[in-house]
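Bit of a strange request maybe. I'm writing a small parser for structure token strings and I need a real example to test against, not something I typed by hand. Could someone generate the tokens for this chain?
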Amino acid sequence: MASTTPSTSFGSETAELPAYEIKEAADYRHDAKVADASDDEKAINVEDAFVKESWNNPPANKYRLCSSFALFTAASLFLSCFGVLIPEFEKDYHLSHITVSLITVGLFVGAVLTAATTNKTHLSLGRCGTGVIAGLCMGLGSLLVAIHPPWPAIPVMVFLAGYGIAALDPVASAWVGSLHHATGFLGMLQGFFGIGSTIAPLIANGMIEHEIPYYKFFYVPFALSMFGSLGFLISFWGENGAKYIRDTSSSKKSGVDQTKEILKNKVSWILGLFVLVNWGAEGIISNWTVVYLTDARGGSSSNASIVNSMFWLSYTIGRFVLVWVVGVIPRKWRGKGPMSFFISVSLILDLMFWLLPTFAGSSVAACLLGFFCGPLYPLILSMLTKLLPPHLHVGAIAIGSALGSAGSSVFPIAAGALGEYKGISMIHPLILGIYVLELVLWYCLPASSSKSMSAGRHG
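Reply from user aminoacidic:
Good idea to test on real output. This should exercise your parser:
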């Protein structure tokens, strides 16, 4: 599908490259030159030849961003309420801990189904169709939970919403990753997810304290999902399958063929494993911070809950601030340094969270930890869009999300088992080990240059 351009010079190398590769290479080598259409040997700058879309060019992009932000907030409202509401589900439906864990299973199965189907939906329905289906699934799942059905319907509705949430991540993240200043906007997109994660427990707690039926909380993500879906439909109208194929220079391979191509690519596996352990660490912190602060540091449940909320607030601020700062650093000075710094600081702060003997000291360390670990996922998404060709972005993000869902389910369970056997303080060596593994995986990735992009594509 990609057309070739005249001979392109990168230093001493000359190669015939597809248009999308030239466009990507322009982000890294501003001095690259191509001959113009008349072949008169007058070189022009590659970046001038291929201008990326920006947040306001075309004008519809402003509304596309707003609808994506709304849907991401709705997704996080749905996902982040269960820490508070699971005890209410248990009391209401008379469930055991094992039975209520089917909620987590439903979310994971939805993510796996998305990974298996998202390439096909993009090739046939494009960004518009895929995004609207994602929003409608989120909204319908939320609505059906809100009307308080019998228990067997709850995991099914959670699965439906989980499919929508998992489908939303690749369609929105891949598009935002194609914009000018993509790193900063990916941070904003994931920052809106953090906003929902911060306010969902507060809203749910407030409803319980005011004796409002807990299941009515789900009307909130339902309403926001419907609003975002309508905005997505209007602003992305015309972004069908044919347009998606043209924009990504994708061949008309089946979704299965593209998935096989992703699975053969070592870069996509490294990125996927990074997401798996990253979401796993966040799941451990989210699920066990309150227990750790109450059992190991003698804090009250209410104060520990406030610390947990402050962790998510600082996590959100970190995504908005630090990712944008990284995005404006000149590329030649950026390299792998910022990400390595954030992971290293997160490791040190978790060590302080573990070893400081007072509730106040551990609480401050936990809040600062959120600020520095928040940017990790947006930055790995940004790297994915640089190392893989455009037609693999959606599938790679979907597979990463499925692995991340597995990590956020399995790692907290493993941490709980370890804490029960060895003491709750032992969750921290597990988190520290994850951060060390993240550093190793980060340095296993090739450098973000035109050469490494090509190498990454072909495994």
